[in-house]
Write a structure and sequence with these properties.
This protein is of the alpha+beta class. It has a domain at about 15-55. Helix content is about 45%, strand content about 15%. The chain has helices at about 20-25, 30-35, 50-65, 70-79, and strands spanning about 15, 40-45, 45-50. It has a three-stranded antiparallel β-sheet. A hairpin with a 2-residue loop joins strand 2 and strand 3. Helix 1 (about 20-25) packs across helix 2. It starts with 14 loop residues before the first strand and ends with a helix. About 5% of the residues are buried. The mean pLDDT is about 85.
């Protein structure tokens, strides 16, 4: 029986165009600029790109501002 090896290299993109950044964050592209406080990077004049790491930081900050939904917290609200 013959066997074959397949080597696949995936290059992850760090900087995203507007539509890609909106999709990455789950925000509609038409609302992305008004909702997202992350400033884009302009490597070339007129080309704005959003850094995934900055977007992740924004998402993490939004998550830490939310109230914790632990079982005790939910049960406490029901009392």
């Amino acid at each position: 029986m013959s066997s074959a090896n397949l080597n696949i290299t995936i290059s992850e993109v760090r900087l995203l165009k507007l539509g890609e950044a909106a999709s990455y964050t789950g925000v509609a592209a038409k609302h992305f600029k008004s909702l997202c406080p992350v400033r884009p990077v302009e490597l070339q004049p007129g080309t704005k790109l959003w850094d995934k790491r900055d977007l992740d930081g924004w998402i993490d900050s939004v998550k830490t501002d939310e109230q914790s939904f632990t079982q005790d917290n939910i049960l406490g609200r029901l009392k």
